[in-house]
Amino acid sequence: MPAELSWQDFSPAWNLNGPRLVLTGTVRHSDGTPARDVVLYYYHTNLEGRYVHVPAQARSMPPNELGQTHGAWRGWVRTGADGKYSIHTLRPAPYPQGDEPAHVHVTVLEPGLSEYWIDDFLFADDPLLTPERRVRLEGRGGDGVVELHELDGVLVGERDIVLGLDVPGHRGRQAADGGTQR
To answer: Which residue ranges form the domains of the chain, and what is each CATH number?
Structure first.
């Protein structure tokens, strides 16, 4: 993770040819107030549905000993006082096997707590996102299914994230604040 993070990030994919995508929203505490200094780490497949390491790209994650990688299309954002975030990238493709809807993985790091994952960003118009698959979603961090709309040739999806929502074992704001709920 870079030392300096902003509330918005432009992934290495943003400057490539493909369907441009902006994922945006507000990260909130369970009481609805905006959450400051929360880091969201995201990664997703390329246009062929693969996580590909690109050695010449500084952000690209080299494969581990099992050959696993998050690939090159990844990044981080840190929310400001208003809890806002904005991720600029390209729309990922489903895995080549065609058994998973296209998605963007997200891990949350709240100040003073261990990181945890939330439901992936999924796209409401994806034919692989069947009603059967939708009912199996856990709702971690809130509803991860986003409706996309086009704005000046860019696909835009909005998702507000609720810290700790439906995350097993989440200690939340009470523990981080020493027992005080704001």
So the answer is: 8-176 (2.60.130.10)
**Structure token pair of residue 162:** 């609720």
| b/e per residue 152-164 (b: at least 16 CB within 10 A) | eeebbbebbbbbb
Q: CA 84 to CA 38: how far, in whole Å?
A: 10
Q: Quote the CA–CA distance of 47 and 135 in Å, as a whole number.
A: 27
Q: Residue 124 is which amino acid?
A: A
Residue count of the chain, please give it. Answer: 182
pLDDT (tens digit, 9 = 90+) per residue, 83-133? 999 999 999 999 999 889 999 999 999 999 999 999 999 999 999 999 999
3-state SS class at 44:
strand
pLDDT, tens digit, for every residue of 45-81? 999 999 988 888 888 788 888 888 888 899 999 999 9
Pair type for strands 103-109 and 148-151: unpaired
Cα-based angle 122, 154, 14 (whole degrees, multiple of 5): 80
Is the Cβ–Cβ distance between 128 and 102 less than 8 Å?
yes
Strand spans (E) along 74-163: 74-78, 84-90, 103-109, 116-123, 145-146, 148-151, 154-158, 161-162
